[in-house]
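Me: I'm a chemist; would you kindly supply a protein sequence with its structure tokens?

Assistant:
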Amino acid sequence: MRTVIAIVGACAAWTAGCGGGGDDAAGDAGDAVAEVEGGADGDPDAHADAHADTEPEVGDGEEALDCAATGHVEHLDQVYRVIDGVNPNLLSLDVYEPVRAEGCPAVPLAIWVHGGGWSIGDKSNQMADKVALFESEGWVLASVNYRLSPTAATTDPEAVRYPLHNEDVTAAIVWLRERAATWNADPGHILVFGHSAGAGIVSQIATNERFLGEHGLGLDVLRCAAMLDTEAYDVRAQCEAGTEIYLNAFGTDPAVWDEASALSHVAADKGIPPCLVLTRGTAVREALSAQFVEALEAAGIPTTLVNADPLTHAEVNDAVGAAGDTIVTPPLMAFFRDCVR
């Protein structure tokens, strides 16, 4: 079933502050350049049964508790995984926690995965508008790093390639889920989204049960997933075309290309969450996104398709939470709000 989002002015029950913020191969590589330039354990099930319209109880003569965010606290460079010989920064994440009144209910946890052709980029890049956007919702936002592939062609068998990027991001999701209560986030309302290569990683984690399964979890721990402008749904097609950033990230084995493609894993009744697919650009690029959406729909996955023309690949990322954006932020946040109702 394909969902068509209507952009309206009303806020969902989760919304604390009512308001939005305020590859082709060359596109992925260009985005990589643009991105460079441009706690304590908690019970993961503590809030799993929270409902979107949960509000603090108000007694007779008491005023309703104002749960609008009045700012945010940054918890930066949290190491979610330790691997010998790996720079800890590549296995770290940042958490942006909204400042809200004591006694407010737990809120959704949105997890951002940066792009950069699987080879460059950082969790801190282009985050200001995104932080402001999710603060305005009163939601917790996390941005994750992961190990990066070479920027130039290599035959080094020890080079970082698939599935390491996905394994790192999955470890970050699990780490955040286990500690959600630390930031008054609801582990039952985890939203994942990414741009470019980050969108590719999100698409693979949300459809291939292997990654969360390695942690004893199912795909259904993800409330929904949003993929912003990627061609990584079909890795084989990109590698067969000789696209260097894909060959560097996924190697030369066609069996790995198929395993790494989200299109290979879409099936009914396996817990794939509702998905938003944002596309733009060439007819070939848009057709690939449409193919992924059609596969999701055929499997009975609620799916939203957004066309972001005339934005460029880099402008899609810039638009998330940007003041005055009417193309990316409204449908993205409408999708997220609907997911957590």
